[in-house]
Write a structure and sequence with these properties.
With 368 residues, the chain is of the alpha/beta class. The protein is 38% helix and 16% strand.
Amino acid sequence: MGLASPRVVVCSLGGQRGFLELPESVVSNDREAISGGERSLYELATAFAVLGVEVELRGQLSASILSTITGAAGARPAVGLPPRRPETGEIVILPEGLPPSDLFLTCHLSGARTVVLLLGPPGLCGWSFLTGWAPPDLVTMDTATVGTPASYRAMAALGFTLWSAARGIAEAGRRAGVRVTRIGTGTPVPFPDPPAKTADIALIEANRWFPLAAEVAKRLPRASVLSIPYQPGYSLSEVIGPGRILPWPSRVEGMSRVEREARAVGTVPIALDTNPFVTARDHGQGTVLVGDLDGMAREIDRLLNNPDEVAVLAKQAVAGARTDADWSRFLKRVSTALSLVPRSDAADARAEFGRHLVAAMKGEVDAG
């Protein structure tokens, strides 16, 4: 399944590096707790490897989670690499959730082509590409302050190519006059079979939305609760599976991996419809959307009194999640997206700026 292309570098989080360098690639046995976004970056890098692309995965990497993904896929990105400057013509993929000057500056002052993978709307977990940005409080923030048209336009004006898993994020870009290529999601790791249901609702404790979900659970005193503490590893599907319903009061984010992992084992998410960056199709089949926490509690109570309806939703959720995460379809979308990354007429000039700046910095160090 070969694909002629330039080298691709996928940057995850962490890793030591020098001035205007890409981070090292270090595989660590100590990192079991990584975000869903980091797992998406591992999956993307592995997809390139399956496609026959020369690909590096950089950052402080989880050995166990990377091994789970690459073992299932039968291909592995290059890892265990020292820091280096980006090279002209290669494609560097960065997550949007980075500080203002971080790797964005490294790539911009190089001849590399930069892709920003919008795991969430710009400004939510990383720089908005606007002045005056500060990390917001996700529980209380005004969702209109992130993912603004100005953010999309600023990234495009810098020459960055934008990708996202979510239709809603791509649609927000379209409204801003900026193309965002939807690559969707995919995993080569099989989902477990749906288990027997032994609890009415599942609550995930190690999650930013847990306080809101716990508030919903308090309004359902007759419901049995499966409370899930921190779980290391690749997926939550196995531990979520015994729950019939997942209260998911996410106010704003990109596509939810937790929702997908719940749906895959027949646990029905009840989610807020107020997130402006995901569509009903992003939430997926089997998910029930409500307007607020009161509505969430009422709908969960209603469904628990209608087990046949829950069974139908669970069946839809299982089928839909597996379709959404289909690995072969993901590979095709990634291949197409890669072929559309444009070349830059300014690549040589930007690379020269970077070389001069690095040389100047080294001269200051030598002189000091």
